[in-house]
Design a protein that fits this description.
single chain, 254 residues, alpha+beta, Muramoyl-pentapeptide Carboxypeptidase, domain 2, 40% helix, globular, binds zinc ion
Length: 254
């Protein structure tokens, strides 16, 4: 099985050969989990996908029809080393229906993520905390512009600490959101983590399937500074596992 997937992976490599320098092809990490996890999380996947998951996933036909199938895994690992194809766009993007920050941009997100986010924002509000959606899905080319602007302004080394090169941003998966709150001093502020809203998110996000992707003491492993505002949807089982173990995605065995 494992060997078979690697062979498919090699075949797939041809599909993204237009991406020369980066991103690298994502080694199927997460894909095993995708199959396992969707079994236990059927409410989180499309009906069509639910009924055709196993056989079609393993078939060459399926892969040839949708070379990006892998990248739709909700547990997909994307980081500075493992990237996404230049032309990967999630198929189920919608405009978010949750409350936006005043300067929000890139307000699309995958449908299931929007559902989970709605439940989480509502739960926060019930506890007295207002959360706001600032930024969700960003295309490869949007990320390219953003990174290049930062690199020009601060130099590449500095930009790398807080921004991702194109193809290496979790925002391209449609599974990551930058959030804020009306009481936070600003966007992308570390003090969001110390605010009541930020603390609520850190404590409860896993219940809704989200993780704080770049925790305080893991910057050497993730490559990113502490980003209490950047949450990533991975589904409830993995979010709970990560929350309880204190591990980040890079530390998991696949
Ligand atoms: Zn982010």
């Amino acid at each position: 099985m494992k060997k078979f997937l690697w062979v498919l992976l090699l075949l797939l490599a041809g599909c993204v050969s237009s991406v020369s320098e980066e991103p690298q092809l994502n080694p199927v990490k997460g894909t095993y989990r995708f199959v396992e996890e969707t079994e236990g999380n059927l409410s989180l996947v499309d009906d069509a996908l639910r009924f055709s998951l196993y056989d079609k996933f393993i078939s060459e036909l399926r892969l040839s029809r949708d070379p990006h199938y892998y990248y739709r895994s909700i547990t997909l690992l994307v980081n500075k080393k493992i990237g996404l194809p230049v032309d990967f766009v999630p198929k189920d993007l919608i405009k978010t229906s949750v409350a936006l920050s005043p300067s929000s941009s890139f307000t699309s997100i995958r449908r299931d993520v929007n559902n989970a986010l709605t439940v989480m924002f509502d739960a926060a509000l019930e506890d007295g905390y207002q959360l706001r959606f600032h930024s969700g899905y960003r295309s490869y080319s949007a990320q390219k512009r953003i990174y290049e602007n930062y690199a020009q302004k601060f130099g590449k080394a500095q930009a790398d600490v807080f921004s991702a090169k194109a193809g290496h941003s979790e925002h391209q998966t449609g599974l990551a959101i930058d959030i804020t709150s009306p009481s936070s001093t600003g966007l992308f502020a570390v003090d969001f983590g110390d605010s009541n809203e930020g603390m609520w998110v850190a404590k409860h996000a896993h219940i809704f399937g989200f993780i704080i992707r770049y925790p305080k003491d893991k910057n050497e492993i993730t490559g990113y500074i502490y980003e209490p505002w950047h949450i990533r949807y991975v589904g409830i089982p993995l979010a709970t596992q990560l929350y309880e173990s204190g591990l980040v995605m890079e530390e998991l065995d696949n």
